[in-house]
Amino acid sequence: MRISEALTVLPVFTPTAIPGLFVGCLLGNFLGGALLPDVIFGSLATLIGAVLTYLLRRHGRFLAILPPIVSNTLIVPLVLRYAYGIMLPIPLQMVTVGVGEIISCGVLGLLLAVALGKYQSQIFRMPTVDR
Fold it and tell me: Which of 15, 51, 91, 92 is most buried (most C-beta within 10 Å)?
């Protein structure tokens, strides 16, 4: 479980979070010493989740938090198997990764979304230019 996965809820509020999440994951994996397949495919899982979260944002926060949970649950176990050689059954890895994603993206992400939603107009307001 990564606490930073809670940030995958940010595309609900702004599309500019999508590249930020992707680059942040890419850098975090790379600088954290992950193997190249993990850097590539783990970051792509985050990108897929972020884009789909943005596309589902108008359908409610509960539905919008599902894409990063699903994308990571499907992709990360394959990375664990083929990049790191973890030979646990793929379905078991999907369950364990999925539980971690539900906690980090689902629970923590939803709490973050609720907290940010209270201040959305102040935080994500476009600056005005006086003329």
Answer: 51
Does residue 7 surpass a pLDDT of 90?
A: yes
pTM: 0.87
How many of the other CB atoms lie within 10 Å of CB of 57? 17
- Tokens 């664990």 sit at which residue? 80
| Residues in CB range of 111: below 8 A, 6 or more apart | 6
Contacts 24+ apart (CB under 8 A), 110-113: 110/9, 110/61, 110/62, 110/65, 111/6, 112/6, 112/7, 112/9, 113/9, 113/12, 113/13, 113/61, 113/65
For residue 131 the two structure tokens come to 């003329």
> Residue 60: which region, alpha, beta or left (left: phi > 0; alpha: psi -120 to 50)?
left
